[in-house]
Structures
1.
Amino acid sequence: MAQEENNPNLLFVNLADSAALKNKTSGLKEVYVLTANKKPVQDWYNNEFLTSTKVQYERLVLASMLLISLNYAAYQPFKDAWWEEERANFHFYRGWRRNRGYWDFGWHDTLYGHLDKLGHYYSARLLSEQIYYISRWIGFNKNSSSFIGPILSSLLMLEIEIYDGFFKDWGFSLADFTANELGAFSPLLGEKIPLLSNFQLKLSYHPSNLHQQESTFIKDYAGMTYWLCFNIHSVLPIDYKKYYPTWLNLALGYSVSKPTRGKIELYLAPDINWMKVPLGRSQTMHFIKKTLNYFHFPCFALKLMPNKKFYTIYF
């Protein structure tokens, strides 16, 4: 083991010494496992995977070009879904009734049961987390990346809201903006408030019988279900934890019966926390499990409202 002279919060550990990590990492912010050629390949303490401890500008340029390209590619689906309407001067959105409402925060300000707000939160969080990992891959340290992810995610989502502000039927939604910010900064809040890490929002989708009426699935709200997944294992008494799988969560699903002015639907179902499934610790497997954890997979479910119904398989 070797302490970094210029940074007392860093500890570099050879693979042969990894068993001693438990007694040596108290108070340290970052711990790297080294290969024989002294290149750090894994942030063991934080269960993250790295290939550099300094900024690599080739990767920075590549990542920037990729982000710009993806941003441009995402424009067309949004244009087809929302931006073919009549334009207007920039304005704020009060709600579907236009001349009255609580600036899209009120329950009756929405046509979609606020399912669109969950979509904003979900998308902003996904962007924030992915940009965080890209920043780490580029070589930014953990603290810097923890802010780069939320800030860039906020800016990308803000771009959509500003564009909405110039369309007559829409407008800049303060509620959408709030959902964006909560989603973008939720990973950072999860670090500061450990209790929040026990919750995760996931998505499942199956085309509804109304999706043919829309040009894109983005507006098929009746086919979307957002699941608030809770880590049951974290609240069990210590004596019972060994009997309950760490990867088995409980999820509350939220959907609507039709895309506009539909009835609210609530579901209860089990859910898998893929990050807790023992499928290996390789960099590839970490990425796969992290990706799978954004989605709720088909499983049996109980509909709680507006009527009770049991599904052997619910998407």
Note: The first strand starts at residue 2 and ends at 3.
2.
Amino acid sequence: MERIEKSIDVGCPVRTVYNQWTQFEDFPKFMDGVKDVRQLDDTHVHWHAEVWGKDKEWDAEITEQVPDERISWRSVSGALNAGTVRFEPLGPDRTRVRLVMAYEPEGAIENIGDALGVMSGRVEHTVKDFKKFIEQRGQETGAWRGEVHDSQKQSSSAGSTASQPRGGRSAASGSRGTSGTSGARGTNPGGSTSRPSGTTDPDAPGSDRVAGGAKPNGDWPFTK
């Protein structure tokens, strides 16, 4: 089981930085190799990317999500991976983003690539490209302020914007949701709900603690 951690300081408020990271369908705009991302429902996302020179697709499940603090996920089909991104306010207009990925290379090509440091380099490029994307915009393309615990969306008090469902793209702005609001993530009733063991939050205490007691495994999905 391999673990990679990268961090970067972003010149935007923590709320803006976090809100942008919730807009998964915008990831292809700044992530190399990612061809398409579709939000299936509040806790499932479908990915299409080039991985080690091969075209791959997989579904990921959001396991934990706390506004302005952290988002954790794991794959539930296809290319195995798990990760956590944390957001730390350093001031009113500065935020530290810490991305942790857990993976297990598949086959000789991926092991060679890892030995050459390609995988670590790709994670570093991801955080740098995200920083450039949000700093140039100055504001998020959308937002979702709900919470997820143990892979389940949490209900909110009556009248709270966080309780609203994640809908489709806004016809007015062309983005999923509105800056600083509950925003929307795309929906698809055919989203995957399977939850196989074998992936975990690499940022959690004890790297072997996963659902079902299995050893963690997976591969970093955005590295060619």
Note: The beta strands are 2-10, 34-41, 44-51, 54-66, 70-77, 82-91, 94-103, 148-149, 152-153.
3.
Amino acid sequence: MAADGGSEGSVRQRVRHEMKELLLIAAYLAAFFVSLTTYRKLILAEYHIGYFEYGWALMEAVVLAKVILIGELMHIGGRFHDRPLIVSTLWKSLAFGMLVAVFVIVEHTVSALLHHRPVAGEFNFRGGRGYELLARIQLMLVVFIPFFAFREVSSELAGGKLFELFFRRRVPVVGEDEGGKAEQP
């Protein structure tokens, strides 16, 4: 028995579940960040500027995935969970967008301190870095809408039904052929 009254197996199951959640969220965010990095690389290549920060994109995806899991553990964005899915989805997207905004501000502040740059320069909106910060926050809001829509629908369908619908072979309904079309008499 574990110290918290649960069995060692249940702790192991919880850790396995959390790791699975972390990896799924990180994979979603990594697809976005890697795409953004590729876009940035192609634009800068036109000006003969090298840019290769895929490692940073992957690391940021994992860190933000953990931030999301911690935010969910703290019930951030859970205020409208009993409202229609569009309301709870948009609210969670906005709430987690604000959480990411705080994370991005902290990230830029730490980066400035580590590289001996003035912190105020990181948030100077006359240059490109300030606008980049705002653009990243805006893009994260847009990326969060389908992410939280999927999670909200999944929470409404008990027992992993949404996962099964997306990733398991569907059995044809009686009266349908394999293509999903009704059989003609």
Note: The chain is about 70% helix and 0% strand.
4.
Amino acid sequence: MEKLKIYVNLSLCTMNFTNKSLIFPPLLFIFSVSCSSPRINVFALNHSPGFSKKLFATNLTKIEKNAINNPDISNLQFEASKELTIFSYGFTMNEAERIKNEDYDKGRTIYSKAHRDFVRSVNYINSSLVSDYPNFLLWLNDPDNHQIEFEKGSAEKLYWAAGAYAGAIQSSNGNPEWIIQLPKIGTLLDSGIKLDSTWNFGSFYTAMISYSVIRHDAKEDKFNIAKSYFKKAVEASAGQDLSPYISYAENISVSEQNKNEFSNMLYKALNIDIYSNPELTLGNYINRKRANWLLDNIEEYFY
């Protein structure tokens, strides 16, 4: 099982679909896919992206059917949420982001589809965690007054729950019903860090780079806090993961309107050998494409 780390852009969470002057920083989430060889998967994505999407969609349909037919089996609910989140971020949201500036109506339609899928993903992961911890939703809605002793192995589920909620928020076109749920992402990430801080090469740290900047209760030194998470993420991945650098560029450099730093971070990411860690190869390949796209569209982020 290879860990696939894909960049997730949350730039539309708190704004109208057409507002390009505000940037809502992104999060990064870890996606896992089965593979026999990282190089084979990179080749497939590079040369047959349409076939890869169709294959993934077919498998996802089977996984969701199993989850629907077995609503009380926690692992099946979790698997459906994870795979649906992977597909929505890796294919649907990626397509919407690239189309929205050229075709407003088509981009909005794709975002709407992604939102429906993310809402299903949220429902699946909630069902899974409620099966494991009956008071999960009470805790998630009011963590100050409800406590849960999570097992260390639940860190992965908490991470994917944060990913599902983040996707639903991002694709909601600024719907207040979803925007007000932003603190839940922080609750899930903070709890995951307490359980297993370096899980999956520092995935929680990478996600916290952006969340530290956009959280509703952000501190005055939020950029310094985000930079500290960046250092922890780089250390946890031994400098072999592109995603912390991309997150730094989009969250910190863009927010501070530091164009030179933005470029430098992305070039540092591009200089990483994507094959140095086989468990990060596929994600690094996809994030390399993201970094190149950001450099090609750099003027969209600075004014």
Note: The first strand starts at residue 2 and ends at 8.
